[in-house]
Amino acid sequence: MTTNHVTFCRICEPYCGLIATVDDGVITKLAPDPDHVLSRGFACKKGLNAHHLTHDAKRITRPMRRRTDGTFEAISWQAAIDAIGAKLNATRRAHGPHAIGLYVGNPAAFAYPHRLYATGFADAIGTRNVYGPGSTDNLSVFLAAHFLFGSPVMIPIPDVDRTDMMLCVGVNPAVSHGTILNLHRPLSRLKAITKRGGRLVVIDPRRSETAALASTHHFIRPDTDAWLLLAMIKLLFDERLVDTTFLARHGSGVDALRSALEPFTVAEAARRTQIDADTISALARDFAAADSAVCYSRVAVGRFGTVACWAAQLLNVVTGNLDRAGGAIFGDSYTDVGRLAKWGGLASYDRHRSRIGSYPDVMGELPSGILADEITTPGRDQIRALIVDAGNPVVSTAGGEALADALPKLELLVSIDLQLNATNRHADFILPATSMFERADFPLVHASLLSEPYVQWTEPVIAPVGEALEEWEIYQRLSDAMGLDVLAKRVITWARRGLKRLGKNVTPEPLLDLLLRAGPLGDRYGLKPGGLSLAKLKRHPHGIRLSAKRTGVLRKRLRTRDKRVRLFDPRLAPELARLQRVDEPDELPLRLIGRRDVRSHNSWMHHVAPLMSKRCTRLRVHPDDAATRGLVEDASARLSSANGSLDVVVAITDEVMPGVVSLPHGWSRRSTSHPTHDANPAPNANDLMDRHAIEPLAGMAFLNGVPVELQALPTT
Fold it and tell me: Domain 585-712: which topology?
């Protein structure tokens, strides 16, 4: 029997609406949902092919245990949970809680109970050793928000639909569909800026897909974005173009900021960025003069990621474009996200520090660059057991080869995943999780990043394939086996008491219903008829648009003690000093940057055959740099950094600026015994990165603007 089911995608922040066609329990087709309240018939190629992950012939659907010969055998859930629980308890008793580590991958942000139970499990164990993709992606963005606004989850987002000038620095929303931003139908909304007479300005070392839509695109030398933004802000202060009324009313630390900006002149920024001084000055003046303007940036993975992300938001603040229509606004939602993050223990910074390098945690996460060293370095709190949940850090982190060498030294490695990959091929146990279409879901984690406030719910489209379980249930079973309470620290007392009074267990759906009904837009269990509840969401499968106030909420959103924007945090001072000291080295003349592809998503959709036919994994090189090195289109070449080398195939294009080459990350030449993956090997930019090149404030890896050289390989 053929049936159609309304659902939504969970690959990236927009959560676009989908219609799934199911034949006898198998999803045969995904189509955009024309009735979704926001995506309105739009979905990207990845979302429309996501069901191939669910029904992949090589998918892991039963718990697996490694045999002594290195192969895997299927075992029962009970046997797997009992064995893992006993080993974890033994490790904890013998070596302490920090001897157990947890790596939680990107998909955990897109299943509403997943992150809650994963971090709750780590809390129940008592370990500080929690890692994830944040330090190779976006922790600098969160930390900058913490410094400015008092909470890492209070991140203002661009008011794309009302802005007169949008400045995109090192970000490509035409492909990413918004990162730390919920942006449905990105292409039409970006095009609309110029159609209504506004300006879309892109700063990027590559003429990206977003730059192709822009009014103006400026090339910039990679990893110099902080210089550009700080020089723009200094000029605005020097020429008295800042919004002094806004700063007097809502800011603190103006004098400290002005003093810190003194060295960052337009002339020095021009030298470092390779954008001429007149252009930088005009850009700053135009931004300040626009009726509304917003700077949107994700320059988080350079050597100075936190400073660059702080400066991008600071530009919005000093021009009075914060909490203003067409500027940077705080996304409104069904709950107070700042308070929720604090209750859940996710609003922390420097709560604890790593054993290796003494790096501070950001929202509970430590830098992934030290994970291999935490495993191999003897001593108290050495990691001896590791759970890798929905992640492939051997491929997706800097210098992953060191981690691949370290994993076999663990006494226990457990993977929670759908497929065999370069990381869990070393596992002692692989536990099968459900795919997005086999579980009920709600877009919880990105509630504060909604460009258009809404809520939606989906029921499972199909029953779990084989014996797959949802991640929250796996953590619940492991906790039970270890005699722990998985949510002891993550679910506050009133939630437990409230559910107990209602006669409900503390499980995901009742918790979500409580969050909705007790929130500002909730029905308060019948006291506010028409308000939100889970039952109401289930009656509106295409989503419910929320009428929420989106400006004039600054004091309500700020989490600083004095309810003012903290313009300068003293912890930034050493990084500003380092930024001035570090100049471009000359030993390796080229700079390597990454890029996204609409058919690829980090490291985990390379098993999907329909997405592989037109993907591009070649190294993009400017014609001048190719000619200097005797390279022609499709030539083989060797790309080298201080940390290794890769053999690549060259694509010659002027979309990259001279002196810059571009290669995507997340690919692998390691076999996973999957025919589609193994038929599409490709070089991985992360293999050239120094895992120890870690930004000290947020623990970010240095992944963009890395010095490299390129040499032609002999033809055969």
Answer: Barwin-like endoglucanases (2.40.40)
Q: Name the residue among 563, 338, 468, 542 with its Cα closest to residue 53.
A: 468
Mean pLDDT of the chain: 93
A 10 A CB-CB count for 261 gives 22
What does the domain layout of the chain look like in residue ranges? Answer: 2-54, 64-127+352-449+454-486, 145-332+555-576, 585-712
| Cα separation values, 373 from 284, 302, 359, 382, 398, Å | 44, 22, 13, 9, 13
pLDDT at 322 over 70: yes
The pLDDT score that the predictor gives to residue 626 is: 98
202-260 tens-digit pLDDT: 999 999 999 999 999 999 999 999 999 999 999 999 999 999 999 999 999 999 999 99
Angstrom CA distances, 221 to 227, 266, 274, stand at 11, 15, 6
Query: Taking Cα atoms as reference points, which of 74, 115, 86 lies closest to residue 480?
Result: 86
Among positive and negative, which fits the CA dihedral 504, 505, 511, 512?
negative
3-state DSSP call for residue 623?
helix
* CB burial readout 607-623, b (16+ within 10 A) else e: bbeebbeebebbbbbbe
Lowest mean pLDDT among 171-175, 203-207, 645-649, 677-681: 677-681
- Which CATH code of 3.30.420.10, 3.10.20.30, 2.20.25.90, 2.30.30.40 fits the domain covering 2-54? 2.20.25.90
pLDDT at site 492: 66
- Beta-bridged to residue 701, according to DSSP, are 694
Contact 345/123 with Cβ under 8 angstroms?
Answer: yes
Identify the CATH number of the domain defined by range 145-332+555-576: 3.40.228.10
pLDDT at 342: 76
CA gap 364, 449 in Å, rounded: 20
At residue 585, the pLDDT reads 66
**What's the pTM?**
0.96
Side-by-side strand order, sheet with 199-203: 216-218, 199-203, 165-169, 293-297
The β-bridge partners of 5 are 20
**Cβ neighbours of residue 72 under 8 Å, at least 6 residues apart?**
64, 65, 66, 430
DSSP characters over 183-250: -SSHHHHHHHHHHTT-EEEEE-SB--TTGGG-SEEE---TT-HHHHHHHHHHHHHHTT-S-HHHHHHH
